[in-house]
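Structure (tokenized):
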């Protein structure tokens, strides 16, 4: 969503237990100017995790949807809701958390403990997708977790490339219900039903594509007011789609999400965990580390995409690497380091072997 990067965080007293569990959460923060507020402390009570089941009519979530398509090299095309249109139609969407109106009103990509950035596709997600294209990862028969998933593009890639199952997790239930699930459904349709000549170039068309998408939505709504019927996408029964059957969706704080999934029998172990731009706040590191520790398979990999530093909230790769080294559980290897602008990175975490300790 096209917001400025201010971090609106109420100043308040939070004890250390709350700081560990509360906002141990997903999030994708871009660069913001430093502020005088204490942005490292959560501002709201713990957000209880829950699983989100698909509606009986998944196609309903795509009414008035305006998709765009991302293509990177040999990767399958990834379809997702246009961010600008999503922002303009926010007031019409269901939002029990009241985050859509608050983010628009405050023009903020972070309201700590309330909204953790999941409505925007952040830069480092593209970096990780490009790395997956370069390395040719197929995900065949692997169990995958998209942790702090937001739009869910990383998990969707795994879904399209043969993963055994994919679990999507985001801090906000509104993000899961109004963005992640619709995006997964979009990708369960045939490409011909959702692509046009105008959206095949993905994010490269920028403002021109966004303006055309907005015009299209307005024309359809005007047609409804006039009593005529706008063109409809081909109706497809998605309720039994084989790809959807591989997906589960969760919201909530990382600590309560971990507790929820560990109650399952058998307990899940993920071969691959994706997490993009989730280390922006040092207060989240203990619970993030615990989640990765408990849920990663013995030979699994955690792919982390991140910036060197997140202004205004204080986290970044160097601080996280130091934290991980002190814990002694994972090794960290750099897979890609960007040199332009504020440096971005993709690293991989894996369990240390006895000889590594």
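Design, position by position:
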């Amino acid at each position: 969503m096209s917001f400025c990067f201010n971090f609106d965080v109420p100043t308040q007293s939070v004890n250390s237990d709350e700081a560990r569990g509360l906002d141990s959460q997903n999030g994708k923060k871009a660069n913001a100017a430093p502020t005088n507020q204490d942005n490292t402390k959560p501002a709201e009570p713990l957000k209880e995790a829950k699983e989100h089941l698909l509606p009986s009519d998944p196609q309903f979530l795509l009414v008035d949807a305006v998709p765009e398509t991302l293509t990177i090299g040999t990767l399958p095309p990834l379809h997702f809701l246009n961010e600008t249109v999503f922002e303009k139609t926010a007031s019409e969407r269901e939002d029990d958390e009241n985050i859509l109106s608050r983010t628009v009103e405050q023009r903020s990509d972070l309201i700590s403990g309330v909204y953790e950035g999941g409505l925007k596709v952040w830069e480092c997600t593209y970096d990780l997708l490009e790395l997956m294209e370069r390395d040719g990862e197929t995900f065949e028969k692997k169990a995958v977790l998209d942790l702090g998933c937001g739009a869910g593009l990383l998990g969707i890639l795994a879904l399209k490339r043969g993963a055994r199952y994919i679990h999507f997790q985001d801090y906000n239930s509104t993000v899961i219900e109004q963005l992640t699930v619709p995006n997964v459904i979009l990708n369960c349709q045939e490409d011909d039903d959702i692509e046009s000549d105008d959206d095949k170039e993905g994010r490269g068309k920028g403002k021109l594509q966004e303006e055309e998408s907005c015009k299209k939505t307005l024309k359809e709504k005007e047609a409804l007011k006039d009593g005529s019927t706008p063109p409809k996408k081909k109706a497809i029964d998605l309720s039994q789609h084989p790809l959807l059957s591989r997906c589960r969706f969760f919201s909530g704080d990382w600590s309560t999400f971990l507790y929820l999934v560990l109650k399952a029998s058998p307990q899940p172990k993920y071969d691959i965990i994706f997490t993009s731009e989730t280390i922006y706040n040092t207060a989240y590191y203990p619970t993030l580390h615990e989640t990765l520790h408990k849920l990663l398979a013995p030979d699994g990999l955690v792919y982390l995409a991140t910036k060197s530093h997140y202004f205004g909230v204080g986290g970044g790769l160097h601080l996280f690497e130091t934290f991980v080294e002190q814990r002694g559980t994972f090794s960290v290897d750099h897979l890609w380091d960007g040199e332009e602008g504020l440096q971005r990175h993709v690293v991989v975490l894996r369990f240390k072997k006895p000889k590594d300790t």
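Reviewer-requested clarification: Residues 206-225 form the longest helix (20 residues). Residues 1-40, 194-210, 227-235 have pLDDT under 50 and may be disordered.
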